[in-house]
Amino acid sequence: MLKSLYDWTMGLARHHHALWGLAAVSFVESSFFPIPPDVIMIPMIVARPDRAFLIAFVALVSSVLGGLFGYAIGAFAYETIGQPILAALGKADAMEAFSDRFNDVGFWAVLTAGVTPFPYKVITIMSGWTAMPLGTFIATSILARGLRFFIVAGLLWRFGAPIREFIEKRLGLMFTLFVVLLLGGFMAIKFL
């Protein structure tokens, strides 16, 4: 089933209404859909580098709006909708244990999930369930998703198709290392 969803998503990238498809996938990926918007965004930018930053902007706005939907699921329908989504992703048990500490590290959780391969939808639902301050959630989502989508767009705009393999295979790791180094730097400042 995941393969057919992936193929369907890739097909959207070639469609003449691809921006609308990207907006839809970016929205639903932030709350429940398993395929990331990069799958549509990358081939769209390779095909039309002159629209790279428009494409990133559409992904950003739609993803943050979808994140708000995920937040609403967590806040108003965690038991009926949110928990089954987290269970399907294999994250339900870990999230139950993490929920007590979530808002203490909420900014970092949203930032990390927004830029790394960790499922952003898990954090959007958790943010609503734990009643993270909405302003913090929105600001951090804009920062994290903006970094992710605009860095991808900038790399593809500047280097074109040759950088595509790096983005698809290693950019998630690079973002993860960036967050780890950033957190390590803050910890070092705090304790030194």
Fold and architecture overview:
The chain is mainly alpha-helical and 192 residues long. It is 79% helix and 0% strand. The chain has one domain (2-191). Helix 1 (2-14) packs parallel to helix 3 and helix 5 packs antiparallel against helix 8 (120-129). It is globular and about 45 Å long. The N and C termini lie far apart (50 Å). The mean pLDDT is 80.
H-E order: HHHHHHHHHH
Describe the largest sheet.
none
What is the overall number of helices?
A: 10
Structural class comes to mainly alpha
Mean pLDDT, to the nearest integer, reads 80
Sum this structure up briefly:
The chain is mainly α and 192 residues long.
Which labels suit this protein?
192 residues; single chain; mainly alpha; VTT_dom; 0% strand
